[in-house]
Amino acid sequence: MAAACGGLARLLAMAALCVLWAALVDARSPVARVHRHLKRLNKPAVKSIEHAIAYVEGDKYYGAKATVNVWEPKIQQPNEFSLSQLWILGGGSFGADLNSIEAGWQSGAYQVTGCYNILCSGFIQINSEIAMGASIFPISNLAGSQYDISILIWKDPKEGNWWMQFGKEYVLGYWPSFLFSYRADSASMIEWGGEVVNSEPDAAHTLTQMGSGQKFPEEGFGKACYFKNIQVVDITNQLKAPKGVGTFTEQSNGYDVQNGNNGDWGTYFYYGGPGKNSNCP
Questions:
Q1: Which of 195, 218, 219, 250 is catalytic?
Q2: What pTM was estimated for this model as a whole?
Q3: Any alpha helices (H) in the chain, and if so which ranges?
Q4: Were both Cys, which of 21, 32, 42, 228 would link to 13 (CB 3.0–4.6 Å)?
């Protein structure tokens, strides 16, 4: 599930209407610089890639976990996509050799350098019960039933491989340690949240949605998309609540993020939005 092309190695295991995926990217903190660099590595002639994320940095991270609300955001253009995922990032100076493992769900096309699911060598799948790239069902609906998935990625402290688990029972496989240059020991940043391509059709912001796509974060449960119980894996191979969680978005009038904490959901955030609207023309 890995590919190397033009300095970018990417592994994806995604959700088709909303598809399950995982990725490996070779490519700065602060977060804005990380994503500007990742944009330059993308081949498609897109105007912009936009995010609404929560993140932690400044420590050594050996994995991450999250429970992700599942929706089917609408996509305006064939070359656009909307995804919700976690990023596990590492790289000496976050320059050309940024490494990133990514996993979550996606709606629309995902055209990047490299490849995804098990179309490329690298990812070793050990579970035949979960089809990488298959559609996720059921999905959430506005003011109705809500559905989510849990994803855990962690580093095996003995072998150095990075493993991926779906839900409580399904260990899907692993990325061998030799695939990584800067994440051989640990990651230096974890991100959770949404990403869309904005190709600016007709010189306006795209209508491609993020998250639920219909509501902004302040609308809350049943309307906005959420990540809950976000955690990081520490040096003792234990899950713990992240410290110093920040948020980032390029265009808060189109896609926004609001984080919080409580006893039931632990560290969580709502995110997303409709894209083009009266405040984001």
A1: 195
A2: 0.86
A3: 31-41
A4: 21
